[in-house]
Amino acid sequence: AQTVTQSQPEMSVQEAETVTLSCTYDTSESDYYLFWYKQPPSRQMILVIRQEAYKQQNATENRFSVNFQKAAKSFSLKISDSQLGDAAMYFCAYTNTGNQFYFGTGTSLTVIP
Amino acid sequence: EPEVTQTPSHQVTQMGQEVILRCVPISNHLYFYWYRQILGQKVEFLVSFYNNEISEKSEIFDDQFSVERPDGSNFTLKIRSTKLEDSAMYFCASSEKPVWDKNQPQHFGDGTRLSIL
């Protein structure tokens, strides 16, 4: 069965600094997709960044980038130049070519002014 | 920007009663999903729906659950006989194409908090 593990329930970062959120997953599939979602206090989840497993190049979206290590089944999120608006719960998620998503337990990120 | 809307925002129901959670997906989206998040726990996939039928469901989605798209705009989740452990935040999501399709993220609603007494 596919599982997604986020080992950091809480993280904090100083404003303007960089923080890395960890995620590992377990799968026997070779073709799959990984995501980071942000859930602000308003509760609606928003897609932050997406990675296709067949791509070796790490995905980047402005201040957000990932470190995808396929052999290690690791998918960490790096947030550079952290802003107060980055404070949220962050979920790592996995899907293969079906439509079932597997989420991690989330990491609560606090940004310290 | 179009949004997924869910009603009600909070539903309180007696144990054993039926409850229907409502969602209006984004209008041109074809794939619909329900998730739940028990307080303090991870978001769990319940079911995906496409072309008027369930495409995938998790082991959580047992016989007490059902989904329906009754009128071409609403997407409902029915829990037939609620249990205490059904208390959770329920999220609806929709996407234009399958979630793994490039640049086709799921759009989530704000959720319905279901409290079973």
Question: What would you note in describing this structure?
Answer:
The complex is a heterodimer of chains A (113) and B (117). With 113 residues, chain A is an all-beta fold. Chain A has strands at residues 3-5, 10-14, 19-21, 24-26, 33-39, 46-52, 60-61, 64-69, 74-79, 88-95, 102-103, 107-112. Chain A is 0% helix and 51% strand. In chain A, the strands form three sheets. In chain A, strands 2, 5, 6, 10, 11 and 12 form a six-stranded mixed beta sheet that branches. A four-stranded antiparallel beta sheet of chain A has the order 3-9-8-7, with no helix packed on it. Chain A starts with a strand and ends with a strand. The model of chain A has no long low-confidence stretch (mean pLDDT 91). The mean pLDDT of chain B is 91. Chain B contains no helices and eleven strands. Chain B has strands at 5-7, 10-13, 19-24, 31-37, 43-50, 53-57, 65-68, 75-79, 88-95, 107-108, 112-116. Chain B is mostly beta strands. Chain A binds chain B through residues 32-33, 35, 42-47, 50, 52, 91, 95-106, and chain B through 31, 33, 35, 41-45, 48, 50, 55-56, 58, 89, 91, 93, 98-100, 102, 105-106, 108-111.
In a few lines, what is going on in this structure?
The complex is a heterodimer of chains A (about 110) and B (about 120). Chain A is mainly β.
Biggest pleated sheet of chain B: 7 strands, mixed
- Average per-residue pLDDT of chain B, rounded, comes to 91
CA gyration radius of chain B, whole angstroms = 13 Å
Number of beta strands of chain B: 11
What's the rounded overall pLDDT mean of chain A? 91
Which consecutive residue ranges of chain A, at least 5 long each, have pLDDT under 50?
none
Strand residue percentage of chain B: over 45%
Q: Mind describing the biggest β-sheet of chain A? A: 6 strands, mixed
Overall 3D geometry of chain A? globular
User: Assembly state here?
Assistant: heterodimer
Count every helix of chain B, treating DSSP H or I runs of 4 or more residues as helices.
0
Low-confidence stretches of chain B: none
